[in-house]
Amino acid sequence: MAATAETIQQVKELGDRYKYGFSTDIESDMAPKGLSEDIVRFISAKKEEPEWLLEWRLKAYRHWLTMPEPEWAFVDFPQIDYQDAYYYAAPKTGDKPKSLDEVDPKLLETYAKLGIPLREQEVLAGVEGAPKVAVDAVFDSVSVGTTYKKQLEAKGIIFCAISEAIQTHPELVRKYLGSVVPAADNKHSCLNSAVFTDGSFVYIPKGVRCPMELSTYFRINQENTGQFERTLIIADEGSYVSYLEGCTAPMRDENQLHAAVVELIALDDAEIKYSTVQNWYPGDENGKGGIYNFVTKRGACRGRNSKISWTQVETGSSITWKYPSCILQGDNSVGEFYSVAITNNRQQADTGTKMIHIGKNTKSTIISKGISAGHANQTYRGLVRIQPGAEGARNYTQCDSLLIGDKCGAHTVPYIEAKNSSARVEHEATTSKISDEQLFYCRQRGLSDEEAVALIVNGFCREVMRELPMEFAVEATKLVGISLEGSVG
Amino acid sequence: MDSTAEILLERFSAEADADRTAARDRFRAAGLPTPGQEAWKFTNLRPLAQFLDARAEPANDSTPDLPGRLVDGAYRVVIIDGRVDGEASGTGIGGLSLSRGSGLQSGTAGNRALRDLSIAMADDGLRIVLEANAAPAQALELVFIGTGSRPDGHHFTLEMELGANSALTVVEHHLGSNAYAATLATDVRLADGARLRHVKLQDESDAAFHLSDCALEIGRDASCERFVLSVGSRLARDEVHVALNGQGSSVRLLGAYAGRGQQHLDHTTHIDHKVPNTSSHEVYKGVLDDRSRGVFQGGIRVMQDAQKTAGHQLNKALLLSRQAEIDSKPALEIYADDVVCSHGATAGEIDEDALFYLRARGIDAAAAKNLLVQAFLDEVFDGIADEALRERLKDRVHDALQVEGSDHG
Q1: DSSP 3-state of A268
Q2: Residue A135 region, left (φ>0) first, then alpha (ψ -120 to 50), else beta?
Q3: For B59-113, what is each residue's pLDDT tens digit?
Q4: Cβ <8 Å between B345 and A419
Q5: Is B340 within 8 Å of A432 when comparing Cβ atoms?
Q6: Which residue in A35, A155, A393, B27 could disulfide with A423, CB within 3.0 to 4.6 Å?
Q7: Could you tell me the end-to-end alpha-carbon distance of chain A, in angstroms, rounded to an integer?
Q8: Model confidence over B250-270: pLDDT tens digits?
Q9: Which chain B residues are within 8 Å of A407, Cβ to Cβ?
């Protein structure tokens, strides 16, 4: 609790609620404004991509033009002018950095401010007992540095920017790219397929247990840019990987678009744990500015006994539109979704998951905790589908919403489709507010209103928070307190 | 404009008033609902379109037998193929008056295709008015019989107006033979303190389509208890839209359904909590066998002013066959903070342990299965106050399930 109170204090001192709201003055190499086939070709050329990938991008772009905007989500925003944005922005560093030492020090400073010790990690590597996290940092559209490469390579693990993987491991990229989220899946993923610029690529070979957490930090810096990263994680037979993702952006008055695609593939007996702390700039109290976070995340449990687990803490973005999903193809495969979503002020979030049970004895668990405050609106939207062949499938869903203040909204839209009688599907949802008794109890013991709310909300979210890796859990707990600041009293 | 909607609108009367014309225009513009529309995601009306396109010969089964009363001593009105049979006026029930004629006001509807269709095309209708403070002991029973004499569809509108502090029991019994498409639009308005018990048995012919849309407006301290049992028809949709308009108002929606063969049974409900201190309670339970498909769509919306709302909904489905399917969408949309709302949904098969327990005590498999299915459904029936009615409805659903029980046991 003390930590939360302390963080709240620090943030107050900074004079603003969003502590990652600074921008870094770095010269950028940018594509001309707007979107056209030429821009797609430009991006592809910049990345020196093979012909097949350019074709794939162009096909996606042409299809994107024909797709209508999705309008079913409970979010409300003006039409996006896709021509009024830059689709490629890279920090100008001349040649590509050969190592972290050649990276623009200003960039490293930015990441240091964000609390991502890109360099320190290598220094600390020798310290016994210190948790090791390999980091891939993505600045605007380009991956700027990946740590711990050597140690990972020794185990045969590939962890690099996806643009690098396209050059060095084209066969893997070509085999799996778009195999979980096809280019034409939805409007936003289609745009991503056409203009994605970077992202992370992970391959864990057969039987390897990744010795450290892998992590990517995304940062939107440049004005008027969209960020379209593409992440591809492949866990080969019997392997295990835990992957962390964090995001921030500077405060800007206009809205910026972030349309990422994440694809996970787990083969026989493999396990992928994917954790996100999403803290994009949420806009100010009146809803001005902020990131549109339109993300498509999907994992395929292709192999027998495979497992994919999504954990997300969503506190940022002015609009979130995100449904990390699992396709449970392999027999006995397991899908999990743990989510905490906090919306305050004018934020809007429509988030949830899809669990598609195809294989026999597949299991899925969904725990979703939504907290809505201020004028925010939040929706849990989830699908559980039991296909006819999914003998013995099992799903348990629990989604709870907490309302703080009388101007906010919390909605639940679950879809449950059971096409096999041997399946068991259970769904529970509740919506309520923090009870006066709980608040009174905390205040009696000397906590301020805000501390009390942070404590109660962290308790409400505990089932999800405990799924997060240690490094993230601490940060996430602090974020909960900060995000709800100003929502009581 | 699709051809099926055109067939349904063929008999549109040239003398129709503005409300009906507006409803017709809306229906024509929107066309027959398709699964592309969110509200119709799980129910495809293509079988209805095919049935109408085929233009079946009218059946001449013109004098149908009347079923026994569901409520002893109820005053009965019979509606055959969308027309009131005989005179329905002086009921002799104190405070209750009935009049014929269709005339629901349209306009309120936002994408309520069934309602629009019924209003536009109703051949006849019934208006039921109960005076303030009247509380007749006698129930009103409406018997809807389909004979197949109008295969291009028959439509009816029903209007119920209950005065302040009045109380009434209304029973709807839908049945028939041969193939037909029946639609029904109902408007219920409960004034302050009024109480309505509404029981509906949907036992249409196995070849029939039953599409019903019921709108309930509930005033201050007024309450409605609605029970629906769906066993009949080939494709049925029972849509209920409730507006809790007055403080202290409440609604209870109970439903049971038993699907067999290729039946498609859809129950769609939407409850709007518009003012503080209102409550809603919803329980739907279904048993699905063979290749039948059940749909439950529940919506609870709590408006910003509607503090102190309690809203609960539950849908449980038992799947008896590998090909049966249940689709459930229990949605909550909440804009007020001082609320206690919940929903739950489950789907699964008969508990093997319970089955084993019964069989170990010498009960054969089919009987044990029946016993468990009945026990599963019976909970919902406990909400019906009239004992004789409750038993008759239970018998009806047990009968329906018994038939399949002996087939598949």
Answers
A1: coil
A2: beta
A3: 876 678 889 999 998 999 999 999 998 776 566 788 899 988 777 776 555 678 8
A4: no
A5: yes
A6: A393
A7: 19
A8: 999 999 999 999 999 999 999
A9: 304
Q: Please state, in angstroms and rounded to a whole number, the distance separating the CA atoms of residues A74 and A71.
A: 8
Q: Which pair of structure tokens corresponds to residue A312?
A: 């997300």
The distance of A358 to chain B (nearest Cα, Å) reads 15
What is the rounded distance in angstroms from the CA atom of residue A438 to the CA atom of residue A187?
44
Instruction: Say whether residue A409 is in contact with chain B using an 8 A CB cutoff.
Output: yes
Is B318 part of a structural domain of the chain?
A: yes
Q: What is the mean pLDDT of residues A394-418?
A: 91
Number of domains in chain B: 1
Burial class (CB in 10 A: 0-12, 13-18, 19+), A470: exposed
Q: Which residues of B touch A394 (CB under 8 A)?
A: none
Measured distance CA(B201)–CA(B188) in Å, rounded? 18
In a domain, B400, yes or no: no
- Residues 6 or more apart whose CB falls under 8 angstroms from that of B297 comprise B39, B42, B266, B267, B268, B269, B328, B329, B330, B331
CB contact under 8 A, A429 and B326: no
End-to-end CA distance of chain B: 47
Q: Is the pLDDT of residue A266 over 70?
A: yes
The tokens 């209102």 sit on which residue? Answer: B278
* C-alpha to C-alpha distance for A443 and A445, rounded to whole angstroms: 5
Q: If you measure CA to CA, which chain A residue comes closest to B39?
A: A72
Cα–Cα distance, A170 to A176 (Å, whole number): 10
| CA A314 – CA A247 distance, rounded (Å) | 10
Interface confidence, given as ipTM, is 0.83
Task: Note if the pTM is more than 0.90.
Answer: no
Q: What is the pLDDT of residue A353?
A: 95
b/e code B175-210 from CB counts within 10 Å (16+ = b):
bbbbbbbbbbbbbbbbbbbbbbbbbbbbbbbbbbbb
| Residue A69 burial (C-beta neighbours within 10 Å; 0-12, 13-18, 19+) | exposed
**Model confidence at A132: pLDDT above 70:** no
pLDDT tens digits for range B367-400: 999 889 989 998 899 889 889 999 999 999 988 8
Residue found under tokens 């109890």: A441
CA distance A71 to B232: 36
Looking at residue A2, its pLDDT comes to: 46
Cβ pairs bridging A and B (under 8 Å): 118
Q: Which chain B positions have a beta carbon within 8 Å of A405's beta carbon?
A: 337
B215 to chain A, minimum CA–CA distance in Å? 22
Instruction: Give the pair of three-digit tokens for residue B104.
Output: 């629901």
Beta-carbon contacts of residue B80 (< 8 Å; ≥ 6 apart)? B64, B145, B147
- Domain of residue B278 covers 3-349
Q: Which two tokens stand for residue A208?
A: 């390897």
In the predicted model, is pLDDT for residue A11 greater than 60? Answer: no
CA distances from A467 to A242, A309, A352, A479, A487 (A): 11, 9, 17, 16, 26
Residue A357 has pLDDT above 70, yes or no: yes
Q: For B33-41, which contacts have Cβ atoms below 8 Å and span 24 or more sequence positions?
A: B33/B113, B37/B111, B38/A72, B39/B111, B39/B268, B39/B297, B41/A415, B41/B327, B41/B329
Domain presence at residue B386: no
pLDDT digits (tens, 9 = 90+) for B315-325: 999 999 989 99
Please indicate, yes or no, if residue B17 is contained in any of the structural domains: yes
* CB environment B323-337: b (16+ within 10 A), e (fewer): bbbbbbbbbbbbbbb
What would the DSSP string read from start to end of B320-375?
-STT-EEEEEEEEEE--SSEEEEEEEEEE---HHHHHHHHHTT--HHHHHHHHHHH
What pLDDT was estimated at residue A12?
43
Bridge partners for A209 per DSSP: A240
What local confidence, expressed as pLDDT, does residue A134 receive? 63
Q: Does residue A28 have a pLDDT over 80?
A: no
